[in-house]
Amino acid sequence: MDSGIFHNPYMKPGRSMREVLDWSVRLAQVADKAGVADFMIGEHATEGWQPIPNPEIVIGACALVTDNIRFAPMAHILPMHQPASLAIQIGWLSQVLEGRYFLGIATGAYPRDAAVRGQPMDLSEARPRMLEAIEVMEKVWKREPFHYEGDFYNAGYPSVEATDPDPTRDLNLQSDFTPWGGRQNLEIAVTGMSANSSSMRFAGQRGYLPISFYGGADSVRSHWDTYSAAAVEAGHAADRSRFRVSRDIFVADTDKEAKRRAIVGGLGYFWDRYLVPVYKRYGLLQGFIDDSGTDITPEDVTLDWLAEHVWVCGSADTVTRKLEEMSERIGGFGTIVMNSHDCIDDPEPWFESTQRLAQEVAPRISMPSPVATS
């Protein structure tokens, strides 16, 4: 099995943007050397705990200091962008990375991000804007002349005839910013969190790569069921080896030490101050509680309980066993993705955990059958 990192990023409020960039690049370097397959970076315009509005800038910086790891914006919030410009930007960056790039897309979930762009805070325009943006982007990548006037966007691609008989000096030459290797080689991914996610249905219909944020085994299993049914109906293969699951993970020498490091480090900090309040607000803790088999309410959740029942903490053997058990419960998946947290103040335990996940855990977990339709 492969491993990946989802870099939201969760950063402590008050960090400078230079600190955010430096930490992101350093984490990518460590992951690359460890053998992590994918590094995905979130996009948020107004969230103080997740302060990267332009993941492509971070990816560009990381491109210069890494060799093998693939990068993705996860995700570009399409309704917030001019799609023709974004299509050119994506193509350029995939060429810079020479194929070490895939694309995450989303409608967006934060009303303030929409308000900044002058869009309705109820996000009522988000989905139709995303669908129209995809249409425009696909047209741009074909590099064929078109003129488009839509409900939300206007765009086009010019037709230019050569005016100089010597093509090496033709002032009308156009740059080719199609994705590296052609549009057919650009993998597109979509994330899902809620049970029976409409995002997973959309991904299946389009043949996109599915990424599940873990909210309990039943929720993740519903993601695959929703995705695979939509994929098969649309004539796409439902391949579990493409299925990625994102979780909070900490690996150390012993179970006790892994749990301690997780609680006192960035992972515990962010769950205590940010994620638990958010999950309570939106009713997202119940899936974890159902998984645990414990008789508690969301108000009873503590960091100790999270470390035991929600985070995957332990030695390499323990984490391997827990992930294998999860794989059996949900039917299999191809990549385990570890959420990143701000560990700037004490980074070495986090770097060690990243390395051990990639080298001591993931390779021991069996991949699912290449293609499955149920």
The CATH superfamily of the domain at 2-74 and 187-364 is Luciferase-like domain
Strand-pairing-aware structural class: alpha/beta
Q: What strand order characterises the main sheet?
A: 3-2-1-13-10-9-8-5-4
> What is the fold-level CATH name, i.e. the topology of the domain at 2-74 and 187-364?
TIM Barrel
| Shape type | globular
- Could you name the ranges where pLDDT drops below 50 across 5 or more consecutive residues? none
End-to-end Cα distance, whole Å, is: 20 Å
- The CATH architecture category of the domain at 2-74 and 187-364 equals Alpha-Beta Barrel
β-strand number: 13
CATH C-level class of the domain at 2-74 and 187-364 is Alpha Beta
Gyration radius over CA: 21 Å
What's the helical proportion of residues? Answer: 40-55%
Instruction: Provide a count of the helices.
Output: 13
Largest sheet: 9 strands, parallel
The sequence of SSEs as H and E is EHEHEEHEHHEEEHEHEEHHHHEHEH
